[in-house]
Design brief:
The protein contains 6 helices and no strands. By secondary structure, it is mainly α.
Length: 101
């Protein structure tokens, strides 16, 4: 008896079995977090990939530094951080409010 796929489709192997759904969910979440992290790591003002931008030191040697400071603030205060500034720092805020009364 041969093991493996043996003529079965992707749907028959993976999607027909409901026990594989958490696997897909965990893998999808991990890939999403990795993508966000790679994007966030490659977009700060200090990171330059092209040779033209690496050779241009004008953005490093500004006399006032206000533009560089503005870019740094914009990078540091990204939308995810701004969202969590508005959210109450609690895992279960409804339950905490109920129990504290």
């Amino acid at each position: 008896m041969a093991g493996g796929a043996a003529g079965r489709t992707f749907y028959q192997i993976w999607l027909a079995d409901k026990a594989t759904y958490p696997l897909f969910l965990a893998m999808g979440g991990g890939i999403a977090l990795l993508t966000f992290r790679l994007y966030h790591a490659s977009t700060p003002p200090e990171v330059t990939f092209s040779k033209k931008n690496r050779g241009d030191f004008s953005h490093w040697t500004e006399s006032d530094g206000k533009e560089a400071a503005k870019q740094g603030e914009n990078f540091r205060n990204h939308p995810v951080r701004n969202f969590f500034k508005t959210v109450k720092p609690s895992i279960m805020p409804g339950l905490n409010d109920t129990m504290s009364k």
